[in-house]
Specification:
The complex is a heterodimer. By secondary structure, chain A is α+β, with helices and mostly antiparallel strands. Chain A is built from 11 helices and 13 strands. Chain A has 2 domains: 2-52 and 238-385, no CATH class; 59-230, no CATH class. In chain A, helix 2 (16-55) runs antiparallel to helix 10 (351-373). The radius of gyration of chain A is 31 Å and the shape is elongated. Chain A starts with a helix and ends in a 5-residue tail after the last helix. The model of chain A has no long low-confidence stretch (mean pLDDT 88). Chain B has one domain (5-229): Rossmann fold (3-Layer(aba) Sandwich). Helices cover 34% and strands 30% of the residues of chain B. Chain B is built from 7 helices and 10 strands. In chain B, helix 3 (105-115) packs across helix 4 (120-133), helix 4 packs across helix 5 and helix 5 (149-161) packs parallel to helix 6 (179-196). The longest helix of chain B has 18 residues, at 179-196. Classes of the chains: A alpha+beta, B alpha/beta. The interface between A and B is medium-sized, with 27 and 31 residues.
Chain lengths: 390, 233
Amino acid sequence: MLALKLAYRNLMGAKLRTWLNMIVLSFAFLIIIWNKGILNGWDQQARRDTIEWEIGGGQYWHENYDPYDPFTIEESHGQISDATQNAINQGDLTPILISQASIYPEGRIQTVSLRGIDPDQKLLVLPTANLDKDIDEIPAMIGERSAKNYKLNVGDYVTVRWRDVNGTFDAKEIQIVHIFKTNVSTLDNGVVWIPINQLQEIMQMEGEATILVSSQESGSIGSIVGWVFKDHYFLLTEIREMIEMKSIGGSIMFIILMSLSMLAIFDTQVLSIFRRQKEIGTHIALGMTQRQVVALFTIEGAMHSILAAILAAVYGAPLLYLQAVNGWTMPAGTDDWGMTIAETIYPAYSFGLVAGTTLLVLITTTIVSYIPSRRISKMKPTDAIRGKIQ
Amino acid sequence: MNNSALIIVTNLVKTFPMGKREFTALKDINLKFNQGEFAGIVGPSGSGKTTLLNIIGSLDIPSKGEAVVMGQSVSGLSPKKAADLRNHHLGFIFQTYNLLQVYTVYENVELPLLLRKMSAVERKKLVLQSLEWVGLMDKIKSRPAQLSGGECQRVSIARAMVKSPEIVLADEPTANLDAKNSHNILQMMEKLNRELNTTFIFATHDEKVIKYLRRKISLDDGKVVGDEIVKNK
């Protein structure tokens, strides 16, 4: 307590020097927390959107299905068994059939992933109910990115050509009945959604599917022969890796900022010990041990981080709060990056993040403060009292 | 404890390394200081006055021989015990005052009491009493930079006296002061010595200080060359 009290007095007495260190360190605090908050917010939003829009409680993939191998896509479908159909009827699963096709918007050929889904499904927030249209052409919906790329609008007709299960080419008109907006770009870029029964019919794959999406409530419903269950950990790998990669980028910034702050504190400590030798000697003469003086100087250095945390809270908390409420609008074009990213990211600041950052900065500052302070224990008190450079 | 020895220095030798050789700063010193003495170690620069004062103040240890302060041999003290001895029984007054520049007068005087973990109420009482002794009640909130040299030395005396130590060690206390301030300071210390029976030991070569001493120990080239009681004091 005494060391804390004296350290606080010394810091407050040092005025400008203390304020400069505190300001630099408080910037570091804020930027570290802000950066982490943005990544956390992005991570949470991306996971939530991906789960709600695309993967539900997990997916059963046909055993041949490999999303990264377009050459095997035509063999990656299987018959839905009666038991699986029961689960579908109960609302635990919804099937998706995937096929490759070409569309010809304005006469240009474009390769697309043609996906069939039940218009009545409720497992995903994908607005499939829009496909429930009684029209001559096949009702289709696409995302905003595809609509922009293919220059298609609601009501437009476009020819779609495919190879059926027997390898025979066939073609038909589809009508764009809905254009949806999603943060999950994998549902949008180059994807055309049509009712599953119509896709099964044109592909001659009656009662077949490529993927079975399970509901968030049920998750895995046990093993299904010929299908492999993929859980959230697997299906969210890309997001996880992307966030980890971004975290590494953030860590570099964190290291640079911390290094700058720590350099300032280290410099202050070295200068303090050099300039304040008389004070050190006086403390010893008044009844402190050298170890106590080392502790005093270490605490004094480390206290910068506590005061900086308080300062950061004073001016940073309202700023961070405002951004948490209003979000951070992503620059135009980020939705074309090919990853799940919202137009506006809402940073997520947890108690753990703030406490963890504070603790990390406190520990680092203490170590940085202690290293030069050790020199005091090697000083001769008699020389220190006279301020004799040692 | 009147007339009993607070400090006993026996066959004390202090050497310092100087390159490959050794420099002997104190040679076979034998001295005793009793309670209530107003004594001075006098001699030219380099005679070993400050070295002897530092050893008595447990800031340094003898190379040979012994210095027993308040019944404790300074050679055998652990850093903690030595710190306790300084905090409880010794007060220091320095030539350059050694006040903490970022502290107020009050805080400077309070510092030794903080190290004793005294209650705030008790601390306040003692600090104010001490500042009253030295006549600085109106400067409580000032910082050392706002004070004159004489006032700084008075703060330094208040800091040394606040814990009512048995011994005050003053190393050239008037060296940075003019004649008027020197006399004021010395009169103040003499008064404290008489009223509180505190032992004062000076290291000095200042004639103004020597005039006030009741015992004069002369040191030359590390040896005691004279130890006289000054009459009519």
